[in-house]
Structure formats: C-alpha cells, structure tokens
Sequence to fold (106 residues):
Amino acid sequence: MLILVPDLHTPKFCMPGMLEEVIIVMVRIRWLYYSCELNLLLAALTMYQRSRKLRDIIVDPTSFVSLAEDQLESLSIAINALYLVDEKSGWILVPVMPDSVCLLSH
Fold:
C-alpha cells in the first residue's frame, strides 16, 4: 500500500527504496505542468531542484552514469527555460548554508 502525505515539494512514501524514483517522476510531471502553463521560471526551478536531488542520490557506482546523465539533462533544461524568461527575472536564487565555520587565528 502506498500512502502519500500532501506536500508538493518533498513527498513522503511508506514504501522504502522507491522514494527517489517517485520523486524523479513527480518532478517531471510538475515541470510539464509549468511548461504547459508557460511559467518557465517555475519550470526552470523545478528542473534545477531535480538536478540537486539527483546529485544527492548518486551513491552507487553502477547507477552513476545514468543518474549523471539525468542530472545533466535537468540542468540543460533549466538553462534553456531560463533563457526564454525575461532577462530581469530569469534567475534562480538558492540559499547557501556553510558546511562549517572556519575561524582563523594567528
């Protein structure tokens, strides 16, 4: 039995091992919806987020090539969608959190 928790950005599933595959399919569906609605900025953001998720799940050397190709495709689609958006608003802002704080002393 598959149970969805209503959250558009990070769906949670009861079946272990399928989360990554389902997220990838859901992101493609969301990208298609935004593209059909001509909201190319959200379509670009969706594909950028997909590439970030793919980066996080690449841990197995056997699946590296296919997941890296999917990540490259996602980034290419995001760049192309941003190219079609007005130059003033064609940006994706991503908050950056430092991994660790380094203090330099003499």
About this structure: DSSP finds three helices and no strands in the chain.
